[in-house]
Design brief:
Blueprint (H helix, E strand, L loop, with lengths): L2 H8 L1 H13 L12 H24 L25 E7 L6 E6 L5 E9 L7 E8 L10 E7 L7 E3 L6 E7 L10 E6 L12 H28 L12 H6 L6 E9 L4 E7 L7 E7 L14 E3 L11 E6 L8 E3 L5 E9 L8 E6 L5
Parallel strand pairs: 5-6, 13-14
Antiparallel strand pairs: 1-7, 2-5, 2-8, 3-4, 3-7, 9-15, 10-13, 10-16, 11-12, 11-15
Helix pairs in contact: 1-4, 2-4, 3-4
Length: about 375
């Protein structure tokens, strides 16, 4: 009997998994995290969401020999200021293999493929090893695409892997979700046409449970620490540390602004960008303390280049408030009094500052 077989048969794998989840839950009680029941309830729900993401990644879809694109971040699994304009996809990779992505481009405004070294499970973030976006893609006459993913360079659409690459990330960024058509893509390992995955083994279960538990702890701690780092710039919106953003999986075509916000019931936060640079797109979003985007299914918690109403001079003013100010570009707090926030310039060569001002709702004009 192997070590993993003994661990699974005795129940030790499961016991250690449960103990690790209990330990991961301590992040909700972090000293600088909000201690009220509402924010802690969201924190514990966040842990359940990260657990679902971890199990999907490490147990259900962790075999790079048979990759499947899945959506790891959506309306009920959120992390790291997930972009409400994005449709995210990912899969496991192994640099010893070569892969092929095929499908239709669709009309979605932005499509980006990134190979990454994903170390979220150990708290080490995510480093991009290769990137290819829609502006670089060659399509056939019918709008079909084919991308080879490998360490060795290929002619045509090629996405590079490095010797430590272990994942593929796909970002589809919409300006108008209702009318734009998403890319419809699949991935396959080259040479695997006649092969089939092996049944579940004790080793796969043992390693999958351990990986999922590490992911929950590493990811939640990573982003809680990041939220705490925003406290000195509360209700301001300065440029983020761009190198750090890239080290945890940021899109290399994006310039980020991050901070925290907190508003009394009678206060609003006004954001003003006096000039809009020439760019693929831009957006702003409101998040909770755990860096989850607020519920955009039922609330307007973000504004982008397409949905914004502009000033006569070409600038834009956004209003974050608890109630409708009856003015353009209202961003709803969706029942929250504090959280984090993010502004993105996407594909811009210039990155103008964003002014933030707190005022009373009664003084807003």
């Amino acid at each position: 009997m192997t070590e993993s077989e003994e661990r699974v048969s005795s129940g030790k794998s499961w016991d250690e998994f449960c103990d690790a989840l209990k330990e991961a839950g301590r992040v909700v009680q972090s000293a600088d995290a909000p201690s009220d029941a509402f924010n802690r309830a969201e924190g514990y729900r966040y842990l359940t969401r990260m657990l679902r993401a971890g199990l999907e990644s490490f147990l259900e879809h962790g075999d790079p020999a048979f990759p499947q694109l899945r959506c790891p971040c959506h309306t009920t699994i959120k992390m790291g200021a997930d972009n409400p304009d994005n449709y995210y996809q990912s899969t496991s990779l192994d640099p010893q293999y070569e892969y092929k992505i095929t499908g239709t481009r669709g009309t979605v405004d932005y499509l980006g493929f990134g190979t990454v070294i994903n170390r979220y499970s150990t708290g080490g973030g995510m480093k991009t090893s290769g990137y290819l976006d829609s502006s670089e893609l060659n399509l056939d006459a019918d709008g079909n695409l084919e991308v080879i993913v490998s360490q060795k360079e290929h002619a045509g659409n090629w996405l590079a892997m490095g010797p430590e690459t272990n994942s593929l990330n796909v970002r589809q960024t919409f300006q108008d979700r209702i009318n734009e058509i998403p890319a419809d893509i699949v991935i396959e390992r080259l040479g695997a046409e006649q092969e089939r995955p092996q049944p579940l083994t004790a080793e796969k279960l043992d390693h999958g449970l351990a990986g999922a538990a590490r992911f929950v702890r590493g990811t939640t701690q990573l982003f809680e620490n990041w939220s705490e780092s925003f406290l000195p710039t509360m209700n301001e919106l300065p440029p983020a540390d761009q190198a750090y953003c890239q080290s945890i999986g940021g899109d290399p075509n994006i310039y980020y602004f991050h901070s925290a916000w907190e508003l009394a019931d009678d206060e609003v936060l006004v954001l003003e960008a006096d000039s809009i640079p020439d760019c693929q797109t831009w957006n702003f979003q409101l998040d909770n303390w755990w860096m989850e985007s607020l519920d955009y299914r039922y609330h307007t918690i973000h504004i982008n280049k397409h949905t914004a109403k502009y000033e006569t001079d070409g600038g834009v003013r956004l209003i974050i408030s608890h109630t409708d100010p009856e003015l353009p570009n209202w961003v709803e707090t969706a029942g929250h009094n504090m959280g984090t926030m993010c502004w993105r310039w996407i594909g811009a060569s210039e990155h103008p500052p964003v002014k933030a001002t707190v005022m009373k709702l009664a003084d807003l004009s």
